[in-house]
Design goal:
Blueprint (H helix, E strand, L loop, with lengths): L4 E4 L5 H4 L4 E3 L3 E5 L7 E5 L5 E7 L4 E7 L7 H17 L10 E6 L8 E6 L2 E6 L2 H5 L1 H11 L5 E4 L16 E4 L7 E3 L2 E3 L16 H10 L4 E5 L5 H8 L4 E6 L2 H14 L6 E5 L2 H7 L6 E4 L11 H18 L4 E7 L6 H15 L3 E7 L18 E7 L1
Parallel strand pairs: 1-4, 9-10, 14-15, 14-17, 15-16, 17-18
Antiparallel strand pairs: 1-3, 2-6, 4-5, 5-6, 7-8, 8-9, 10-11, 12-13, 18-20, 19-20
Helix pairs in contact: 2-4, 5-6, 9-10
The structure holds S-adenosyl-L-homocysteine.
S-adenosyl-L-homocysteine binds next to helix 6.
Amino acid sequence: MSNYRVFLKPKKEESLLRFHPWVFSGAIQKIEGEPEEGDLVNVYGANGSFLAVGHYQIGSIAVRILSFKQINIDKDFWEERIRIAYELRRTLKLTGGDNNNTYRLIHGEGDSLPGLIVDVYANTAVIQAHSVGMHHSRNQVADAIHSIITEIDNIYYKSDATLPFKANLNNEDGYLYGGTNIETALEYGLKFNVDWVKGQKTGFFVDQRENRSLLEFYATGRSVLNMFCYTGGFSFYAMRGNAKLVHSVDSSAKAISQTKQNIELNFPEDTRHEAYAEDAFKYLDKMGENYDLIILDPPAFAKHRNVLRNALQGYRKLNAIAFEKIKPGGILFTFSCSQVVSKENFRLAVFSAAAQSGRNVRILHQLTQPADHPVNIYHPEGEYLKGLVLFVE
Ligand code: SAH
């Protein structure tokens, strides 16, 4: 039990009564004790009634809620949360199989563990903390994963890029368990060597699995451009879907070299694939009009609300070139993973790009994140991935 008590201002308990998992600093009346960032605190209403327990933070979000019950945050707590999350992924048939063993085990608020991400690649779990509280809890999280998921031998902690910079934690990424016997990850029957040590995020973009699978369906006989390919995710599905040719482009030379290695692993000596380390706009400007399936999966153009306008312009410009150059009868898969860009804003940016090109465009599919990245209904902000599949006449 925590000794620190956070009391809210009158009427500020309402969002917690609706199970929203954050307390904003402006809602706090007073704090009893002097919690440090990452400590557990109990939160009370102005009338003194218990509301929730969570991790204390310095910043506009002051507490991230772990439970709305007055419980101890102990071994049993972590094991219960991990078990529930794992059972869901088992229900989704994503775990430990010989067709798929790549999935997100913990998706922050979506799994009632704000600030924590865990991705699983075959027998390796990669933990990523976004808060000091989760950083302090990393060993308990790892122990719970290790005791519940028997097929996991390695647990890597990777939080250098995601922990609050000002907290000065001197974190060093590394293995909390294992680290020697690493198996190749499988996503819907395709093999991937994932580099969590040097790669982006936890090493792979697990969130595009279902959308990549949909792309496979459309790839038959098409000339595919996979722009912002990272380690090639969409390209593999296009290859397996019998695309005529597949070109993968990313500005990161390291990502392109991994793309080539992973292609070789799945489609040895297949000459349909080429990969280029180049800037997206440079490539798009000079490319011809030969592609009839284009994927645009850029990095988050807006990480903060105050750059939203520029981000929307970026999406519009990017999509405008694709609309101009895609072959008649072409299909465009276009995405935004910026949390601050709403579905409506993204559609508006893409639709104005389409209008600018003067082409007839219709929506075939409206895409989002997969079920192992669940959205907590009390935290709708958790819905971040938006995609459209468009037919261009
Ligand atoms: N579609 C990928 C994930 C894309 S992540 C998948 O399914 O795995 C976004 C990628 O965009 C990153 O790999 C990053 O290196 C790349 N990127 C960022 N800026 C870029 C630019 N200006 N031109 C080309 N690629 C860029």
